[in-house]
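All the exercises in this workshop are built on plain-text protein records. Sequence and backbone structure share a record, each on its own labelled line. The question running through the whole workshop is how a given chain folds. The record below serves as our worked example for the rest of this section.
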Amino acid sequence: MTTQAATFELEMTRFIRAPREKVFEAFTDEAAMSAWHCPRGLHVGEVSADVRVGGRYRITMVTRDGTVHGTSGIYQVIERPSFLAYTWTWDGEGDVAARTSLIEVTLTEKDGGTHLHMRHTGFPDAAVRDDHYQGWTSVFNRLVDYLDPEGTAGNVVVVGSPISPYTRAVCIALAEKGVAYTLKPLAPHVPDVDAIHPFGRIPAMYDGPLQFYETRAILRYIDEAFDGLSLMPTSGVTSRARAEQWYSAMDDYGYDAIVKRYVLQYMFPSGEGGQPNRAIIDAALPDIERVLATLDAGYGKRDFLVGNAPCIADYLAAPLLYSLSKMPEGPALLARYPNVQRAQAVMQARPSFISAEPDLAGKGEASNVTPLRKANAA
């Protein structure tokens, strides 16, 4: 074996709520490796593992378009269940593929689970090392999914108020994908939100140590990282553009008219004597009518904004319109738009929507962290 000098190295740690023996087995059992040993958005194609000093292993990782990335190596040290060392070489040509690096995994019992420490040495430069950091972070997220009693809810944490239409859109999307998650109910601009979002907005999301903010970016990550129902139309570029168009319309115009200038006046009144400000409400009503008329024409005879399945635009429109329906003028406004009413009845009957339904009367001010496990909506 020929190895180059370890000029750049990577060290990572994770706590896994599983016995050390199970974590070690996950690194060495072929069936277990098939379940987790690739980044999110890929799947494991083939695994072989001759787990003995001098034995070889091989793993292939397959993208959604069928591209195969393969890696292989030789076991150097096996000390069950505490330590494992093996070489790592990517398939292909070029300096990175030809370079053999070394992985050392140390497992220590801690707090009823396992502390994992990985040291990966032998990278040719900082850029390659940093690429591997992103990849290993995602791979270890899948390892936690595989071993943690909460499944993906051990990694995926949505941070935001349950009454926020944007938080709800993310929760609906996760439920549509069948991804278990934990909701950490927090208002905008509190320290835990500011720590993730530079502008203190909600929602934000953790996937293990990875952090994301801005609803559209979170939805894109969810769609590409997890299997299950696509959050975007699959029927072509025109349909995907329409989905983006409708999402932007709801984001730019629907939220402003329905929530910012209307719903919030009833939930957090700014008028004299603690009453809703009628001037703000009355000015918002014509713009709400315009949004509803645009949606009514957009739905036509369909139940969803694009095609025959829900997409990101529906996931945002549904909580916006639900909030409208709970306000004093809301039912009368919606009654004028039968296509909107029909489409919303369909969305509100989906398990994903029901799972994210907020307590508007109580303003959603839950204080505890709630793990949610929802099946993929049909």
Observations:
- The chain has two domains: 8-149, 152-378.
